[in-house]
Description:
By secondary structure, this protein is α+β, with helices and mostly antiparallel strands. The protein has helices at residues 18-29, 51-61, and strands spanning 3-12, 32-37, 43-49, 69-77, 86-88.
Amino acid sequence: xxxxIQCLISGRVQGVFFRASTQAEAERLGLAGxxxxxxxxxxxxxxxxxxxxxxxxxxxxxxGPPGARVDSVECRxxxxxPPAGFRTG
Length: 89
């Protein structure tokens, strides 16, 4: 059963390849969605897929790529149409 989550990640998460690394991890896990920078310095991740893959991505988001400093990850389930593929913006 496919689910979608929206996560807001704060810390040093812009300018450290966080979005590109998130895209690579999400694609490895077979997830669709996006990772975008927000004006307030956070990154928003929308991810859709199976529960196990979403749990794995949430665990990965807690530390992110080398060079990132994740202070918090806030995720919630959302009811959206799953997008095709994964994009960054």
